[in-house]
Amino acid sequence: MTKVLVPTVCPYCGAGCGFFIAAEKERAIGIEYMPNHPVSEGALCSKGNAALEILYHQERLTSPLKRRGDGFSRISWEEAMQLVARGLCDAIKKYGPESIALLSSSKCSNEENYLIEKLARLLGTPNVDNCARLCHAPSVVGLNRTLGAAGMTNPIPDIANSRCIFIIGSNLAENHPVLTRWIHRAKDVGAVVIVADPRVTHTSWMADVFLQLQPGTDVALLNGMAHVIIKEGLIDIEYISQWTRGFEEFRESLKDYTPEKVSEITGVAASDIVRAARSYALSPASSILYSMGITQHRTGTDNVQAISNLALICGHLGKPGTGVMPLRGQNNVQGACDMGALAEFYPGYKKADDPNTINYFSSAWGAESLPLGPGLTATEMIDAASLGEVKAIYIVGEDPANSDPCSEHARQALNRLDFLVVQDIFMTATAQLADVVLPAAAFAEKEGSFTNTERRVQWSHKAIEPPGAALSDLEIVCKVGRSLGIDLSYPDAASVLAEINRFVPQYAGITRERLGRSGLVWPCPSIDHPGTPILHSAGFKLADGRAAILPVLYRPAAEDASWEYPLILTTGRLAVHHNAGSMTRRSPSLMEREPDLYVEINTADALRLKVADGDEVTITTPRGETQAYARLTDRVKRGVVFMPFHFPGTNILTSEITDPDAKIPEFKVSACKISRRD
C-alpha cells in the first residue's frame, strides 16, 4: 500500500506549526517536515517531533465508560447517550438550566468549540467557558478594552522586521521554541532584545537587556518604562493625537513611577529600566511578546493594559515590525475564544450581556430564546459546584482536577456534582471522577480548522481512524445534542465552518475551499478578502476609531513572603512538556528527558534550608503540600522558587485568588515554605 502524506497542525502550543503525517496501511508511521509552512518553515520542537507517540498509547480510551462502584465498565454509545441525556436533563428539570455547565476545549477545532458553546446556549445555560480562563483571559479582556481586538496584532514572521523586541513574562525559547528563529533573524540585523522575567531562562540568554524582576511587579516595571519615555520626550505625539484617547490622564498617573521607585518595587536596577525604555521607544519598529507570566496574576488584565499603553504612546502598532503579541499556550485557545466558548462572549466576541447579541443568535440559530450572560467562568463553575449551585458539568478535553489552582478544591467540587461527563482521549484525573466517560479522537484522527496565536486559521486533515469506538469531538457533541432533542445535524467539520462563515464576521471569508497549506488570517470579512496579517493599520474598532490608553496602578500580589511562608513560588512550562501533561507525560521520549516534578531553589536559600541538589523536599502553601526533587540553581533569585506545572503536584499549591475582570487565577505568586524530607 502506498504511503500518503497528510498535512496537519501540531496539537501542542499556539504557534500552529505544520507537518505531514506519513500514513500507511491505515497507520501513522512517521512525521515529515513542511518546509514551506509560513510559521515553522519545516521546524518542529521536541513535543511536535514526538506528537505521534500518543496515538497508539495503551491508555487511549476506546469505548464509552460508566461508573460502577470505584471503577468503570464499558458500555455502548447508545447507553452512554441515554445516561448523558438523563444526567443533564434531570439537573435542568430539578434546578433549572443554569444548574449545568459546559467546559469546552482549547485542543478542539473551531468547529467543535462552536458546537459546544452552541449546545450550551440551546440548552438554556450561559455557563460555558474554555481553558483560556486559566491562560489568556486577560488578553481577551485587556486587548478588547484598549485596542478593540483580542488577538496578536502582527504575524509571527514579522518579528524578524522588529528593531527592538521586548519579551516579558514568556520563556518562549522553551515554550514556543520554533518562534525564536524569527528573533534570531532580527538580532542578526541589529535588533535589540529586552527580556523581563523573574528567572534566568533560555530566553534571557538572547537578551541585550535582562530585567530580572520580582514576581508580580510587571505593572510597576511597565509604568516605570512609560514614565521614562514620557519624561524624556520619546513619545510619538502625532500618533497619540491621531489614534488614541486618554493620554493626559495616563501621563498624570505615572508621576510617582520614577526609575528609582520602580527599582525598589521590582528589584531591577534603575539604570536598566531607563535603558530598556529608551531602547523600546527609540527603535523605529518595536514589538512586545508576552505570555502567561503576564496574564496569570490577579492583576493580569492590568498587566495587559499596561503593555498596550507602552505600545500606544510610542506608536508601535499598525505597521511591520511592531505590535502587541500574546503567545497562546494551546493549539486552539485563540479559536476557542473566537468561537464564543467563553462565559462573557458569544461567537465573534459579541457580548453575552447585550440583548442585541441574544436577538442576533436567536434568529441565526432558530431558537426562541437564548440565555443572557455572562455565565460562570471555568473557575467559577468549580466554586459553584462546591457550593451545590451547579449540579452537572460536561467537560470536553480539559483536566481541571490537575490544571485548576488549589486543585484539591477542584477535585472535591467535582465529586460533589450530581452528574459529571468527561470527553477525552485518556483517563485523566478529571475523567476518573466522572459518571460517564466518552472516548474522543486525537488530532490525527479527525479534521477541522485551528487558529494559531497570530490569528492564522489552518485546516488539519484526518490521517487515520480513531481507535476502537472513539469518535471525533464533533461527532460526539452532535450525538449528545440529538440525545437531548437538539438538532445538531452536521455531517462534517466543513458544514460547521460554513455556518461559522455566516455568523462570525471575522471568519466570513475563511471558507473550507480557501484554506490551503498557508491558511488565512482573520479578520477576513469576505471570500475575496486576503486576510489581515497586521491589525490596526487604519485605526481601532473602538469609539471614534481610537485606542484607549487606560491608567493602571501597581497593586502587589495577593500573597507575600512571611515568617511562616518565607519563599515566593512561581510556576511555568518546560520545553518537553505541555500544560497538565495528559499527553506529554504519556510520551516516552519526552518523559525520558523530564520524568519527575522538581523545584528550583536558589543556592543560598538551599544552604539555609540544608537542602542538597537532588534531595526530595516538601513544598507547602496555605492550600496544601507537594513533594518534589530539589534543583539548586542561581536561575532564580534568593527568596523565589520555581516549579513546572505539568505534574499533578504543582497546582495543589497555587492560589485560587482571581483577577476581578478576567477571572484568571494568580498562578504565578504563591507564598510557600520548603523542608527536606528525611
Overview of this protein structure:
The mean pLDDT is 95. The chain is an alpha/beta fold. The chain has 22 helices and 28 strands. The N and C termini lie far apart (59 Å). The radius of gyration is 24 Å and the shape is globular. Strand 6 (100-103), helix 3 (110-122) and strand 7 (128-129) form a beta-alpha-beta unit. The longest helix has 19 residues, at 77-95. Helix 7 (218-231) crosses helix 11 and helix 16 (378-386) crosses helix 18 (407-416). The chain folds into four domains: 4-54, ADC-like domains (N-terminal domain of TfIIb, Single Sheet); 65-135 and 331-400 and 409-501, 3-Layer(aba) Sandwich (Rossmann fold), CATH 3.40.50; 153-326, Dimethylsulfoxide Reductase, domain 2, CATH 3.40.228.10; 567-676, Barwin-like endoglucanases, CATH 2.40.40.20. The strands form seven sheets. It has a seven-stranded mixed sheet, sandwiched between helices. Strands 23-27-24-26-25-28 form a six-stranded mixed barrel. A five-stranded parallel sheet has the order 10-9-8-12-13.
